[in-house]
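call fold(seq) -> C-alpha cells
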Amino acid sequence: MALVVLPRSLTALFPGAEHRVPADGATVGAVIDSLDRRWPGMRDRLCDTPTSLRAFINVYVDGEPADLLSPVPPGATVHVLPAVAGGAEPPSEQAAAAGVS
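ret:
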C-alpha cells in the first residue's frame, strides 16, 4: 500500500477526500484507479486518456517523476501535484513599466 498526497485543489472537488490517503496499486495507474473507486471521477481529473496523465498534472513516486506505468513499491509515497505556471516580471521590467530607472 502507498501513501498518496493529493493537492487541496483536488480534494476540494470530492467530498470526504483526504489530503493524505492510503491506496493500493502496483503502478501509478493502478493507484489512480484505487482512488477513483473511492471517489468516482478522480481519474477523469488526473488523466486525459486511459494511458496518459493530464498535461497539467505531475506525479512523483518517492520523489522521482512518474507516469501511469511507473511502479509503486509497497510503502512508497506518491505525490500528485498540479503544474505551476506564471509569476511576476523580473524586477528590471517592473521598474521600466513603472517609469523608474
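The chain has a mean pLDDT of 90.
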